[in-house]
Amino acid sequence: MRRLIEVLIAVFLMLPWAVSEGAAVTVQPTEQLPQVVVRENFIQQATKCIEDALAEAGETRRHTIDPVIVPAGLRLPEGNISYAYNIPAGIRFAKGTQVNLDVLVNGKKYTTVRCSMRIRVYDQMVTAAKQLRQEQVITASDVKLEEREDTGANWRYFTDVNEVIGKVPTKSIGQGHILNSNIIQYPICIRHGTKVMINANVNGILVSTEGIAMENGRKDRYISVKNAVSGKILRAKVIDENNVEVAA
């Protein structure tokens, strides 16, 4: 019962519980709870937790960590203060990342403080140096590297201009736009009606026969091809402008 009363008093005296960045609120000690942990200490501990997680994940890109919602402070009883922390939902770039700080007094958990932090990560990304038209073959003068923020989107951005040179946009791209895997693809290298070699690996032996492309194709994409001998329609992976590959 005494432990429950101490916890309830601590929660009641933590007013306000949390403040946004820049708020000037202080928590004063009381006779029952003479120790005070200030907001800056929570920020420091949450930042250390995130830095440790980033280092463990092998993250080497430039980044910033800023508080979003952090408690104004905490009153504690006498004793040695220490912390244990975790990130329950994992790192979320450009969004709120919650850090749970377990506050321990003399090695025993006293309460849990929740901090919301914003992590911004930056990298050298390939961007459009000028307006790019749909299906325009990209050259070195069309792109450049710029430091941009990784917003954690599902698409993959490019960090080497050579990854996009020779490829084409799937749509018109404005100057300064980040080039990503959703809007960049190989150009059409096989046209509908052209002759191709259909290749298959049968027990380690390469078997080839002539075929006809039934649709346009890009490298690494699958298209329909007709076996010129049997007339059978197959799905085949485009290898280059002359060859496709089917599963044996």
Describe the structure.
This protein folds into three domains: 2-121; 122-185, Antifreeze-like/N-acetylneuraminic acid synthase C-terminal domain (Type Iii Antifreeze Protein Isoform Hplc 12, Alpha-Beta Complex), CATH 3.90.1210.10; 188-246, SH3 type barrels (Roll). By secondary structure, it is mainly β. The radius of gyration is 29 Å and the shape is elongated. It is built from two helices and 17 strands. The chain has helices spanning 2-13, 39-56, and strands at residues 19-20, 35-38, 62-70, 73-76, 81-86, 96-105, 108-128, 143-150, 168-169, 184-185, 188-190, 195-202, 205-213, 217-218, 222-227, 233-238, 243-246. Mean pLDDT is 90; it is low at 4-17.
Topology of helices and strands:
Elements: H1 2-13, E1 19-20, E2 35-38, H2 39-56, E3 62-70, E4 73-76, E5 81-86, E6 96-105, E7 108-128, E8 143-150, E9 168-169, E10 184-185, E11 188-190, E12 195-202, E13 205-213, E14 217-218, E15 222-227, E16 233-238, E17 243-246
Features:
Type Iii Antifreeze Protein Isoform Hplc 12, SH3 type barrels, mainly beta, 3 domains, six-stranded antiparallel sheet, 248 residues, 43% strand, five-stranded mixed beta barrel
Quick synopsis:
The protein has helices spanning 2-13, 39-56; strands at residues 19-20, 35-38, 62-70, 73-76, 81-86, 96-105, 108-128, 143-150, 168-169, 184-185, 188-190, 195-202, 205-213, 217-218, 222-227, 233-238, 243-246. The protein has 248 residues and is mainly β.
